[in-house]
Design a protein that fits this description.
With 535 residues, the chain is α+β, with helices and mostly antiparallel strands. It is built from 15 helices and 14 strands. Strand 11 and strand 12 form a beta hairpin. The radius of gyration is 54 Å and the shape is rod-shaped.
Length: 535
């Protein structure tokens, strides 16, 4: 069934190019024929004009024209010249148009059929005219007395070539034109076939409708998918980036056509996208997000096209996971404290049963005062409820681990210093890191403090653990680094990277000191009125 729309794009291109080539060749052939005919007519005109002028200037003709009987002299002369020049007629006549010569002797003495006025005036007549021999291209020139131009006209010379003779010469050129057209068609056909073959290879034999539908669907899918998608070629140039990838990576402009090293991405993300390695569920912390990166090689029919990378946003999930870990730790600590409280309660009851009521009261009071003192210190120093709850929970965890958890005297954290979620992320991860660092120490201690000064809130978390080696200080905030062994963290190590992310988002700074121990110092800008009110 004839259905051009279902043809492959290559076939459609081939047919269109064949049609165009056919039209061009046919047009060229027609133009060449018309040009050849025009050239032949022009050459015929120039030829008869040259012959006519030569005859008119011949002294023999001039002398015969002024004689009493020109015909006997001029008729043989004219026929001889006509045969020699290949013209169809040469007519030499009197100024009044009476023929002295003619190819048909019976017409000698009759009037010339054609225009002679311009020639009688000293000019030249060059025209196509139908005379006694049929349509012809003819030239009429004057014969001057004594052969001197400008004297009186003593005769006229008309030389002509029949138009059918001109057309026959043009027809003789047609086979050559057809051969040239055939060669042009063959060359055009070969070129068209090569182009169609290349197009078929590039379009995989798909039709234009299929290609259009594919582009429409693929574009719709790329814009609708909720994961970031990047296609990077083997040279590290971005070939494709959907809307979600631009949002997740914080790209203000379209990255297509630019190298990944020119996009200003976080160092780890840039390295991962540029090296083209296989990656599975790899976590990366950018300035504003926690991203999960998967990357694989893209191949088609054995050819390596580059890499396809997918990005998923894990920022909220990571924050919730941290909060869940904190809540779980707090629950575990409360569970342990419940057991500890039960043991202490049994001790108090036993002392009372043994009749040692005073010792029972003293024992219970000392435990209550120690617990209440820490609670009072935290509640009095920290006005932000979320941070207060966090520190109390961490204090319970520290107590369970046998770590001395101290809130430094003079600590001040007013409400509104920073968003509660960011404060929990910063302090919670730093305290967790400190608790892990003092594991195994002889007298483990973790200290938390905060001050308002010079328009900044300075938060410090210190421990008396082994501290950080000097060569690891710069790596402490990179993704994957942790003070715990890999088997204990599962290779994640996101806590400190999240701390740096939150601090950077708030416009602050974070530093860590070298041994002995480790002191993490976070400085956050605060509003002037808040700093003045708490100074």
């Amino acid at each position: 069934m004839f259905a051009p729309r279902r043809w492959s794009l290559a076939t459609q291109v081939l047919v269109l190019q064949v049609l165009v080539a056919a039209v061009v060749v046919a047009g060229g052939l027609g133009a060449a024929y018309l040009q050849a005919r025009s050239a032949s007519q022009e050459q015929a005109g120039q030829r008869v004009l040259a012959v006519a002028r030569t005859i008119a200037a011949d002294p023999y003709v001039v002398a015969a024209a002024t004689s009493s009987a020109p015909t006997p002299t001029l008729q043989p002369y004219a026929e001889k010249v006509r045969a020699a020049t290949g013209t169809d007629f040469i007519t030499i006549m009197a100024p009044d148009g009476t023929r002295w010569t003619h190819p048909d002797p019976s017409r000698i003495g009759q009037k010339f059929v054609g225009h002679t006025e311009q020639a009688l005036a000293g000019g030249v007549v060059l025209e196509d005219y139908t005379g006694t021999l049929g349509p012809s291209t003819r030239a009429v020139v004057p014969v001057w007395r004594g052969g001197a131009v400008g004297t009186s006209v003593v005769g006229l010379v008309a030389v002509g070539i029949r138009l059918d003779a001109v057309q026959s010469k043009v027809a003789a050129q047609v086979p050559g034109l057809l051969l040239a057209a055939l060669l042009a068609a063959l060359l055009a056909g070969a070129g068209t076939w090569l182009v169609a073959r290349h197009t078929r290879r590039q379009t995989a034999g798909l039709s234009s409708a299929e290609l259009r539908r594919m582009v429409e669907y693929y574009d719709a899918v790329l814009h609708a998918v909720r994961e970031g998608l990047l296609l990077v070629d083997r040279d590290g140039t971005v070939l494709l980036a959907n809307d979600e990838s631009r949002r997740l990576l914080g790209l203000a402009s379209d990255p297509v056509g630019r190298r990944v090293t020119q996009l200003g991405l976080q160092e780890g993300v840039t390295a991962a996208l540029a090296d083209g390695g296989e990656r599975t569920d790899e976590l990366h912390v950018t300035d504003a997000r926690v991203l999960v990166l998967d990357q694989a090689r893209a191949r088609w029919q054995g050819r390596d096209l580059g890499t396809v990378a997918t990005l998923r946003d894990r920022t909220d999930l990571e924050a919730l996971t941290g909060e869940l870990d904190t809540a779980r730790g707090l629950a575990d600590a409360l569970h342990a404290q419940a057991h500890e409280s039960a043991n202490r309660l049994h001790t108090v009851v036993s002392l009372i049963e043994l009749g040692r009521a005073d010792e029972a009261v003293r024992f219970a009071t000392e435990e209550l005062m120690a617990s209440q003192q820490l609670t009072d210190d935290v509640v009095g120093a920290v006005a932000e409820p979320a941070l207060t709850a966090l520190l109390l929970g961490k204090a319970a965890q520290a107590s369970e681990r046998g770590v001395d958890f101290v809130v430094e005297p003079g600590t001040v954290v007013p409400e509104g210093v920073a968003p509660p979620r960011d404060l929990v992320t910063i302090v919670g991860n730093l305290v967790d890191n400190a608790l892990d660092a003092v594991a195994g120490a002889a007298a483990p201690q973790v200290r938390v403090g905060a001050r308002l000064a010079d328009g900044r809130c300075t938060i410090t978390v210190s421990d008396n653990g082994p501290g950080l080696p000097a060569d690891q200080v710069e790596q402490a905030f990179t993704r994957g680094w942790s003070s715990k062994p890999v088997e204990a963290t599962g290779g994640r190590g996101l806590g400190l990277a999240l701390v740096q992310q939150s601090v950077a988002r708030l416009g602050g700074t974070v530093e860590v000191s070298a041994p002995p121990g480790a002191t993490w110092t976070v400085r956050l800008p605060v509003a002037a009125e808040l700093a003045a009110g708490r100074a």
